[in-house]
Amino acid sequence: MGMTRRFWISMLAGAALVTAIGPAAAQGRDVLVFAAASLKNAVDDIAGQWQRQTGKRVAVSYAASNNLIRQIEQGAPADIFMSADLDWMDYGQQKNLIKPETRVSLLGNHIVLIAPRDQTVSIKIEKGFDLAAALKGGRLAMGNVDAVPAGKYGKAALEKLGAWDNVKDHIAQAESVRAALLLVARGETPLGIVYQTDAASEPGVRIVGTFPDDSHPPIIYPVAITKDSNNAAAVEFLKYLRSPAARPAFERQGFTVLE
Asked: Do 43 and 127 share a domain, yes or no?
């Protein structure tokens, strides 16, 4: 492992961004994956499963896709980038940060409106629905609507349904979709927009409604090997992510496997 790689893994671990699989993760030629925050539960399961089967380890940094690709652009030695939308993978490809021939559209998802588990609010998500009234003076938790994929999808849906103008001044913008999820789970906001998979992973919230798929661009999670990675184990792990062995872990969390 080169000095640059050790520096980045050390820095990420210090920032509590890395989930290490196994007691000696991030040593030797372990695979370093940068993955969208909404993938945490599924990818943790798959990485652990892969280690048990192969003896090879994976370290995963979870954050908003925009933050991850910027870190790769600044020199972070990730082997694999897993984005929550096409835009940030497109950015990585345009900036020559990934190997285009390895790029695959892996997963699909849905966005939902959530409330704290103990709340009884009922909302029908449709054209012209009054989301502002449902907030009752509170704020709507979302990922940053200009950068975080889930926030971008949510804003697009609200605009399409005619609800954005009445709530745009009452948004609690979070740095990732998981941060938005926590705002609702803790009762700090009465409602939030997250992925269906996030809602399924958090017992402190319940789904109030699902946004129509035609109200926003298709939610697609692409994955690719980074341009500077020469880690053979990363190629193997990418194949594993695409294999039937990984499918159950994705589907348990509510993802649609596109391949």
From this structure: no
* C-beta of residue 238 within 8 angstroms of C-beta of residue 223: yes
Task: Mark 85-108 as b/e (b = at least 16 C-beta within 10 Å).
Answer: bbbbbebbbeeebbeeebbeebbe
102 and 117 fall within a common domain:
no
DSSP code for 220: E
β-pair partners for 172: 141
State whether 122 and 248 are in the same domain. Answer: no
Please indicate, yes or no, whether residues 157 and 179 belong to a single structural domain of this protein. yes
Render pLDDT for 55-112 as a digit per residue (tens, 0 to 9).
999 999 999 999 999 999 999 999 999 999 999 999 999 999 999 999 999 999 999 9
The pLDDT value given to residue 11:
53
Give residue 195's domain range: 111-215
Query: Is residue 177 within 8 Å of residue 98, measured between CB atoms?
Result: no
Could you tell me the CATH number of the domain that includes residue 207? Answer: 3.40.190.10
Give the number of C-alpha atoms closer than 13 A to the C-alpha of residue 110, restricted to the C-beta side: 17
pTM here is 0.84
